[in-house]
Design a protein that fits this description.
The chain has helices spanning 2-7, 85-95, 100-107, 110-123, 164-169, 187-198, 216-224, 233-240, 247-251, 269-278, 284-290, 293-298, 325-328, 374-381, and strands at 9-13, 16-19, 23-26, 29-32, 35-39, 48-51, 56-59, 61-66, 126-131, 147-148, 153-157, 177-181, 206-210, 228-231, 255-257, 315-318, 339-342, 345-349, 361-365, 368-372, 390-392. The protein is built from 14 helices and 21 strands. A nine-stranded mixed sheet has the order 3-2-7-16-17-18-20-19-21. Strands 11-12-13-14-15 form a five-stranded parallel sheet. It binds zinc ion (ZN).
């Protein structure tokens, strides 16, 4: 298969190529040197060709909020419902050294925990992830399972980050500044946006995580300032039994979706899309934009999330059983994805993609046999913790 790597070009034939903003735009897609080279272009003779048999090929998803090192933790709460995530955070902090499950999760080496967070995202078709916490060294590795947004500023929240205004000021204006905000349904949550704005930290690069407690007037103010919302509905319902009102953000192309970590989130981005769909707040087309092109703009990652010549070939391939990409959102489990492609290379896929990944390793993913790129399989084999549902064969 040496010739494949020499030409480094791949030609998908007989598919449905979907761009989130423009809809179905063609039937063939050519990838060269890790980038999208063209749609509906003629294949040079040397290309490796793959018949998609009507499958949908579209931009891979973008997860706008996760804590990658916290995905080996149990979903955790000590009350049925909180009025404000601050109460949850205080309870968690008080039990960090006493709750046996939390202690066990914390003792796992950071690099192993991060790897599981990256793998979780890759398997769900999310190849670009906004990580909320320091940019730990293992995230820089070119073998990390996904692309992690590396230019960002962040604060945890107004209540845990008294220096949030300084953190905002030190974030370049062309990088996102992310903060958990209005993660509650009480008066405190409703006061947070004004505090952020008074401190000069509500700008066009501000990404409000959660925003459950935002009033209509506050949503209008945030949108007027071109601040965006990262919506994490399953985490919100788990903690607060309520979620954000997202329609206005979506209409302004200022809505992204995040899985949050499994400490509070349901699982992965596909789970989040299911819960998002159930709220019936926005159309499926709008939801599609929120996990692709709109998220890319919000997170200032310009070369992913669209199908255009020259952008990175980060793609997912969905089964041909779906009428459209929008239809599929909320109805997809990770084992349903035909293939996940990062920088033009197949990373995990159904068995029939094996000719595109000759040294792949077979894995069982949630009861279905798949192939996984060899470097990922090797890294997974030596990881000290497992991802539930993933077993090397
Ligand atoms: Zn969070």
């Amino acid at each position: 298969m040496k010739w494949f790597f020499e030409s480094d070009a791949l030609y998908f034939d007989n598919g449905r190529v979907v761009d989130s903003a423009r809809g179905e735009i063609g039937t063939t897609l050519r990838i060269a040197r890790g980038r999208i080279d063209g749609v509906n272009v003629a294949p040079p003779r040397a290309d490796v060709r793959f018949d998609l048999d009507g499958a949908i090929v579209m931009p891979a998803f973008i997860n706008a909020h996760d804590h990658l090192e916290l995905n080996n933790f149990p979903r955790w709460k000590h009350r049925p419902c909180y009025a404000n995530a601050r109460e949850w955070a205080m309870e968690m902090n008080a039990r960090l050294d006493s709750d046996a499950e939390i202690v066990a999760a914390r003792t796992v080496p950071l690099a192993d925990r991060l790897f599981i967070g990256g793998l979780k995202n890759l398997l769900s078709g999310a190849t670009t992830v906004a990580h909320h916490n320091p940019f730990h060294a293992p995230l820089r590795s070119k073998h990390f399972p996904v692309r992690v947004v590396s230019r960002y500023g962040w604060s945890h929240s107004l209540y845990l980050s008294p220096d949030f205004a300084r953190a905002y000021r030190s974030t370049p204006r062309n990088a996102p500044y992310m903060i958990h905000l209005a993660e509650g349904t009480d008066a405190d949550a409703q006061n947070e946006l004004a505090r952020l704005d008074d401190a000069g930290a509500l700008g066009d690069n501000t990404v409000l995580i959660h925003g459950v407690g935002l009033t209509e007037t506050q949503r209008a103010l945030a949108i007027q300032k071109r601040a965006a919302l990262a919506w994490c509905p399953s985490s919100n319902f788990f903690l607060l039994n309520e979620t954000a009102r997202v329609r206005e953000f979506s209409d302004a192309h200022l809505l992204a979706v995040g899985s949050d970590s499994r400490l509070t989130g349901d699982g992965d981005l596909l789970d989040e899309l299911r819960v998002a769909r159930e709220t019936k707040q926005i159309s499926q087309d709008a939801l599609l934009r929120a996990v692709t092109c709109d998220a890319a703009n919000i997170l200032r990652v310009r070369n992913v999330g669209i199908i255009e010549r020259g952008v990175r070939a980060d793609l997912v391939i969905l089964p041909n059983t779906f009428g459209s990409a929008a239809d599929a959102l909320g109805n997809l489990a990770r084992a349903d994805l035909r293939a996940v492609i990062l920088d033009g290379t197949v990373r995990v896929a159904d068995l029939d993609f094996a000719p595109l990944l000759p040294d792949a390793v077979r894995v069982n993913l949630d009861g279905r046999e798949k192939i996984l790129a060899r470097d990922l399989a090797k890294r997974y084999a030596r990881n000290s913790i497992r991802e539930t549902g993933v077993e090397l064969l």
